[in-house]
Amino acid sequence: xxxxxxEDFQPIQELVHEFIRDRVVPREQEIADADxxxxxxxxxAAEMGLFGYAIPQEWGGLGLDLTQDVELAMExxxxxxxxxxxxGTNNGIAGQVLVGFGTDEQKSEWLERIASGxxxxxxxxxxxxxxxxxxGLRTTAVLDGGDWVIDGQKRFITNAPIxxxxxxxxxxxxxxxSGTGIAVFLVPADTPGVEVAAKDRKMGQEGAWTADVTFTGxxxxxxxxxxxxxxxxxxxxxxxxxxxxxxIAALAVGTAQRALDESVxxxxxxxxxxxxxxxxxxxxxxxxxxxxxxxxGRALVRETARNYVSGxxxxxxxxxxxxxxxxxxxxxxxxxxxVHGGTGYMRDxxxxxxxRDVRLLRLYEGTSEIQRLIxxxxxxxxxxx
Amino acid sequence: xxxxxxxxxxxxxYSERKLSDxxxxxxxxxxxxxxxxxxxxxxxxxxxIKEAGEGEVTVxxxxxxxATDAIRKALSMGADKAVHVCDDALHGSDVxxxxxxxxxxxxxxxxxxxxLAGNEATDGGGGAIPAILSELLGLPQLTHxxxxxxxxxxxxxxxxxxxxxxxxxANLPAIVSVAEKINEPRYPSFKGIMAAKKKPVDTxxxxxxxxxxxxxxxxxxxxxxxxxxxxPPRAAGQKAEDEGDGGTKIAEYLVTQKLI
Lengths: 385, 260
Ligand SMILES: Cc1cc2nc3c(=O)[nH]c(=O)nc-3n(C[C@H](O)[C@H](O)[C@H](O)COP(=O)(O)OP(=O)(O)OC[C@H]3O[C@@H](n4cnc5c(N)ncnc54)[C@H](O)[C@@H]3O)c2cc1C
Ligand SMILES: Cc1cc2nc3c(=O)[nH]c(=O)nc-3n(C[C@H](O)[C@H](O)[C@H](O)COP(=O)(O)OP(=O)(O)OC[C@H]3O[C@@H](n4cnc5c(N)ncnc54)[C@H](O)[C@@H]3O)c2cc1C
Hints:
Shape of chain B: globular
Order of helices and strands of chain B: EEEHEHEHEHEEEEHEH
Strand content of chain A: 5-15%
Radius of gyration of chain B: 22 Å
Helix content of chain B: 25-40%
Shape of chain A: globular
CATH class of the largest domain in chain A: Mainly Alpha
Largest interface: A-B, 12 and 11 residues
CATH topology of the largest domain in chain A: Butyryl-CoA Dehydrogenase, subunit A, domain 3
Strand order of the largest sheet of chain B: 9-8-7-10-6-1-4-5-11
CATH superfamily of the largest domain in chain A: Butyryl-CoA Dehydrogenase, subunit A, domain 3
Largest sheet of chain B: 9 strands, mixed
Largest sheet of chain A: 4 strands, antiparallel
Oligomer: heterodimer
Bound molecules: flavin-adenine dinucleotide
């Protein structure tokens, strides 16, 4: 039984639908120009509960399961992805590490504030030279007089410039036969030695910020080790990322739907020599390919989420959904620009923004190549067993 | 503090609104129905007053079955309970009848300390319900408030007019109608939506309220709406090229319009 019944979920989804279409879509240009989410939208999102929809109710969230999470993600994908990014780390990669692996004390100290949006949590895994292969990370955590001392450098960390809490992956020892040696820690952003660099200049997703984060002799109490387990880090990262992949796939479907809607509206009204371009069969073919991708992606996301929740498949399905849907949206966005002709290449046209925004989806939370390795490797391993 | 908020479900101003061909009452099927935004603001005001002290917020709504959606919205924003007067006999009621029914519905509960309403509904737009209620309930009324505060047994309101601000006060219990600028209503929260389902909604018919069916409905209305037509689209302006005689052309135009 989901914590939120389908009957309760429906008006929640309607509210999010209305919020996205009525409040956020009209402000996309403003968000892009200012490279920031307006404070008013942040407040409304927090009031609604968008910072904690995937955090369990006992810890102050709403406790949506993944089948419901993806429905919201498809709504959120319809507008600038920067909005979702603002609360994405709280519900997703960062929040879920605490939910799945934190001790009760750690959960009660942080989760309620994460769910309300009072605290923004960031997930700090990637390092120079340790992106696709996080097991190669070099940030260290050393026990010193009952405290952990963390040293190292992270990069591309979403929400770092506004984070209150970093979920930091670091090794307590070199990898060996007994395990990866990777642990994960709770590091408040105001701890001395934590330094967030200037925000990165990115290709797209204006309004969502990433930055390098350096840890220099950062001293935190022993109780900051998540789960009290030095071996929990790698598994926590992989588990959190697998769930996140289904969410990202759903976002991609939402954005693909938007790109399709923009394309159809444009094709129906723009003319060449007096003929609406939508009357040209080659343009119709582009719309057809977009529509097919959206429908296939949506069906895949829903089935993958169901199998994730039931426990039937938490590995190959999520990677397949992320691979297919993020590649699909890349293609749909490319076609959307094509349907718009030269207009599609101009700044301030939604499909131009979408074209840049969705490029990220094939890179983070596991590149498309990494998804293929997980899927292919998993299938072969299963056959050998 | 017992606060009653009057809420009305109205056709969404974004959708096409029209009257039914049959009897010139509101065609409720042709448009999405929403909680009137001015009433969201009244609910917001009630919640702010409640949150600043203590109290209970009851929403009262007179409307057809599907007005439950508007009631649910007010409850998910944070109102505590609701009274829904729902009766086919009410179809086509005028403002007088509507006000009588609202007064009777208010009378079903504990005597309110404060009744909040919108100053004018976006559909009927009579802007008279609060005033008629004030007469029926024998309560003072402060209208068009853009700011409301409670100090002890007094309610203070600020009204904005084109000329400036007017400061008003009345003893509680009182009726206050709120204006557009009063606040930015909160978004319902997900948890509020879930909690709303469990909040009590009392539903009454006209007979339950002891109102005579001969006083309500289209057949007993003292006034009739005969027609509603959308404003004709504004005609394209008239362009005058300035060939050194621009001023004269403008003056000539103003003369034809009898403006000078
Ligand atoms: C905007 C943005 C936000 C991000 N947010 C976060 C965040 O919040 N937290 C966080 O920890 N990280 C974050 N990242 C980092 C992101 O997860 C990594 O960039 C991503 O995993 C890829 O790693 P990399 O950049 O080191 O590239 P690399 O791993 O160096 O990849 C380069 C290329 O090599 C390929 N490749 C790598 N290894 C293999 C292999 N074994 N086999 C075949 N091909 C391979 C890749 O697929 C890719 O094509 C973010 C990145 C961006 C751009
Ligand atoms: C186009 C149109 C024109 C109309 N013109 C007239 C007319 O000239 N004379 C007349 O007698 N009737 C008229 N009516 C009928 C009138 O709209 C209804 O009686 C209506 O229920 C109450 O009046 P109002 O909407 O004008 O309310 P207003 O007085 O404009 O509403 C002010 C506030 O009173 C409260 N309130 C109003 N109605 C309700 C309700 N049903 N339930 C709970 N709270 C409520 C709300 O807080 C609202 O914000 C008209 C209806 C239509 C559709």
